[in-house]
């Protein structure tokens, strides 16, 4: 049985805490599973184009297959969206190795689950590998038809924007004027000598 390497005394521990990784994985898995199960249900129970009211005038299910992005943009470049989702997923996994904040883990996990949900459609659904059309079915007035994966991406990206605006770093520390005095970087002796 191998033990994890010890961190030298005085050196900051840069390893991602196990609980943070578990939170990111749980968020990603929850979004992914909910997305794939609801898409399976839609494909199994609805006809393409079928519209079923849920809350009259506010919410309905409408089964479409989307080759593009939101609002059906880029319908002729489906492979680009497949490539973007692969790159985003890899970057998130690599970034999670540096995350020590539960809020960042949650945000990135939501985006990862959503990206993987739609990537699964791109890879496995008709008309073919890498060119598959995404199943969308959640419809509201004057907006694009979307799915659970899209919800995960939007909520996750919104959290990323909020954390960034609040000055929260991946390790949970704060930057800028909002940071507690103990977290602010003190000037080095060389910088002190140049002031005044």
UniProtKB/TrEMBL annotation:
<comment type="similarity">
    <text>Belongs to the peptidase A8 family.</text>
</comment>
<feature type="active site">
    <location>
        <position position="136"/>
    </location>
</feature>
<dbReference type="Pfam" id="PF01252">
    <property type="entry name" value="Peptidase_A8"/>
</dbReference>
<feature type="active site">
    <location>
        <position position="150"/>
    </location>
</feature>
<feature type="transmembrane region" description="Helical">
    <location>
        <begin position="103"/>
        <end position="124"/>
    </location>
</feature>
<keyword id="KW-0812">Transmembrane</keyword>
<keyword id="KW-0378">Hydrolase</keyword>
<keyword id="KW-0645">Protease</keyword>
<keyword id="KW-0472">Membrane</keyword>
<keyword id="KW-1003">Cell membrane</keyword>
<keyword id="KW-0064">Aspartyl protease</keyword>
<dbReference type="InterPro" id="IPR001872">
    <property type="entry name" value="Peptidase_A8"/>
</dbReference>
<keyword id="KW-1133">Transmembrane helix</keyword>
<feature type="transmembrane region" description="Helical">
    <location>
        <begin position="77"/>
        <end position="96"/>
    </location>
</feature>
<feature type="transmembrane region" description="Helical">
    <location>
        <begin position="144"/>
        <end position="166"/>
    </location>
</feature>
<protein>
    <recommendedName>
        <fullName>Lipoprotein signal peptidase</fullName>
        <ecNumber>3.4.23.36</ecNumber>
    </recommendedName>
</protein>
<comment type="pathway">
    <text>Protein modification; lipoprotein biosynthesis (signal peptide cleavage).</text>
</comment>
<dbReference type="GO" id="GO:0006508">
    <property type="term" value="P:proteolysis"/>
</dbReference>
<dbReference type="GO" id="GO:0005886">
    <property type="term" value="C:plasma membrane"/>
</dbReference>
<feature type="region of interest" description="Disordered">
    <location>
        <begin position="175"/>
        <end position="196"/>
    </location>
</feature>
<dbReference type="GO" id="GO:0004190">
    <property type="term" value="F:aspartic-type endopeptidase activity"/>
</dbReference>
<comment type="function">
    <text>This protein specifically catalyzes the removal of signal peptides from prolipoproteins.</text>
</comment>
């Amino acid at each position: 049985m191998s033990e994890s390497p010890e961190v030298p005394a005085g050196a900051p521990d840069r390893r991602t805490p196990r609980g943070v990784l578990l939170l990111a994985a749980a968020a990603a898995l929850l979004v992914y599973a909910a997305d794939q199960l609801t898409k399976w249900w839609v494909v199994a129970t609805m006809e393409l184009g079928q519209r079923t009211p849920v809350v009259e005038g506010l919410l309905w299910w409408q089964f479409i297959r989307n080759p593009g992005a939101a609002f059906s943009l880029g319908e002729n470049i489906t492979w680009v969206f497949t490539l973007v989702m692969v790159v985003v997923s890899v970057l998130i996994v690599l970034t999670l190795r540096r995350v020590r904040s539960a809020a960042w883990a949650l945000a990135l996990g939501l985006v990862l689950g959503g990206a993987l949900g739609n990537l699964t459609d791109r890879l496995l659904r008709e008309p073919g590998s890498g060119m598959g059309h995404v199943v969308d079915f959640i419809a509201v007035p004057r907006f694009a038809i979307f799915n659970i994966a899209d919800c995960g991406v939007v909520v996750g990206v919104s959290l990323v924007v909020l954390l960034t605006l609040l000055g929260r770093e991946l390790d949970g520390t704060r930057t800028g004027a909002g940071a507690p005095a103990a977290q602010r970087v003190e000037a080095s002796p060389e910088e002190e000598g140049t002031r005044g």
